[in-house]
Design brief:
- With 335 residues, the protein is mainly alpha-helical.
- The protein has two domains: 139 residues, no CATH class; 147 residues, Alpha Horseshoe (Serine Threonine Protein Phosphatase 5, Tetratricopeptide repeat), CATH 1.25.40.
- Helices cover 66% and strands 1% of the residues.
- It has 18 helices and two strands.
- Strands 1-2 form a two-stranded parallel ribbon.
- Helix 6 packs parallel to helix 9 and helix 13 packs across helix 15.
Length: 335
Amino acid sequence: MHLLRALIRTTRMVKHTPLLAAGLTPDDEVLLDVPDDRLGPALVAAGRGDHGPAAKLLAMTREAAEWENRDRYTTRLAAFARSRSEWFDDWQSAAPHDPDALLVKAELAVVRGWESPARAELLRETAPLLSAAAEADPRDPVPWRIALDHARGTHASQSVFDEVWAEAVRRSSHHYGCHASALQYLSATWYGSHRQCFDFAERAARDALPGSLIQALPARAAFAYLTSASGNVPRERLDAAADLGITLSAEYDAGDPWPAEVRNLLVYVLVRLERWHDALEQLRLIGPYATSFPWDRLADDPLGQFLELRDGVRIEVASTTPLRTGRGRAHHGDH
């Protein structure tokens, strides 16, 4: 009986796996953390030692109050400066009080602090940099997202976290980056619990604007739970989080880079819930846009991990697809 089941499973895989590649970007065309059309040229220029385009890009986001883009660009520019700092050193020398340079400097300092074994001590030393970035433009919520990361790394108390969170939402009540950072602080892995994490995520998602990535917060809470070593969250709550993420994903076009990280995260959650058909659909929607998160939490090669998992999802779907399907019969879901 076991042999027969294995044979049927293998036959299904051989029959259906090639077909399930339809709509998936070929492996050699999938890229990791692709910058958008505005960030890409700034990174290229920085690679040549020219900080001008990066400075202009961040200035534009500040002047137009494009806080979500500003947060993304700051993170990517700081990551680039961490490995190649000459262009950023020149920027700081040329404009030491530039609000945009101060913001990247704060992000870079906090990221470096997080990487150190003496994390809490080094992060505490970065506090003046966060203050300088926040004071440079009092409207900007991004320094407060960085401050939320800082609070988590310095073992800040709940009362300190509440103060920082209040400052963040006062500047932008629907800023995704601040919400995602706050969610980490409230997770069971850090200073909260699974219940706090889900309650916060679900409340924020209910209050979110249409199409806002904040609606993916419950999926982030599910990720935090599924990657933790303890706790018990009802399956219904996990499925509801995944369903909300699927609904959000459907509001964006296939191959849209903006929701790429959310879709990558959603694939992880769906795979852990063994919702193979749903996971395959999200992989099709992702197109060529693999993101480091969440795959860098699982392997040193996030792109390789993404491609391996994508193959695995195809095989799982093939193994549950009937060998013969009547006309008009729909494949059932796999909740």
